[in-house]
Write a structure and sequence with these properties.
The protein starts with a strand and ends in a 29-residue tail after the last helix. The protein has a domain of 138 residues. Helix content is 49%, strand content 6%. By secondary structure, it is mostly helical.
Length: 247
């Protein structure tokens, strides 16, 4: 504010200086704004999708090994024919339940191995990688089930009974009775272990470093300088006549 011929004039904001009270003014250069979540320009999205595809394929192919192990370790169900019908050799045997239990235990083990491998290789993987791990576990379990059935004893029990002859024991087809439960063991175990590993050993996001000096000067706080400082009190006008001291 200045005196000129008895008229009070207010100083104008220089054209090259921003208005400190403009709500649309950009923040100081020392500040850091977080990028928009889910931006389509995120450079990591394509890489994460490729990693997810690799995880799904590799985990699903591991189901072949699971099927072979199940075929090798599952107990056999002995059958016998009397010439007109086929019966269980041991009606009180638990071999059928043992086949399901063997599959479940093997699937749980494969879930642990796949989760550990994915976490070790892709520790910074996001949600897509975790979804790929679960999807690969489901596909791997289904593939293991079909591999065990295809490579196991024939499902044509009548033909096998005729081939074996009366009173001769032969193996029943390899079957999985609780298919829905057995197929979900692998993905659930993998997701649970991956979550625990991420919580215990996953990378931590660094704490954001904010520049306090830029914001304090922008909002007129301590250390503010120049036109960005907060509003100051009105200047004391000079005495009439231009004198600078007492007469």
């Amino acid at each position: 504010m200045a005196w000129h011929d008895g008229t009070v004039t207010a100083p104008l904001t220089p054209p090259h200086q921003p208005d400190p009270h403009d709500p649309w003014q950009s923040p100081p250069s020392g500040s850091h704004l977080a990028p928009a979540f889910g931006s389509p320009d995120d450079p990591d999205t394509a890489t994460e999708l490729r990693q997810t595809g690799v995880v799904v394929v590799l985990v699903a192919l591991a189901g072949i090994a699971l099927g072979l192990l199940w075929l090798w370790l599952a107990p056999r169900v002995p059958l016998v024919s009397d010439g007109s019908a086929v019966f269980l050799e041991n009606s009180e045997g638990e071999e059928a339940i043992g086949a399901d239990g063997t599959f479940v235990l093997l699937a749980a083990g494969f879930g642990v191995l796949s989760a550990a491998a994915v976490f070790w290789r892709l520790r910074r993987g996001g949600v897509f990688v975790v979804v790929g791990l679960a999807l690969g576990g489901v596909l791997g379990s289904l593939l293991a089930w079909r591999v065990g059935v295809w490579l196991g004893p024939s499902s044509d029990v009548v033909a096998r009974a005729r081939e074996a002859g009366k009173g001769v024991v032969f193996d029943a087809p390899l079957e999985l009775h609780a298919v829905a439960v057995a197929v979900l063991v692998w993905p659930f175990v993998a997701l649970a272990l991956h979550l625990l590993l991420t919580a215990a050993f996953g990378p931590r996001d660094p704490e954001p470093e904010w520049s306090g000096a830029g914001w304090s000067s922008y909002y007129g706080g301590p250390g503010a300088e120049g036109p960005t400082a907060g509003p100051a009190g009105p200047p004391v006008p000079p005495p009439p006549g231009g004198g600078s001291g007492a007469s």
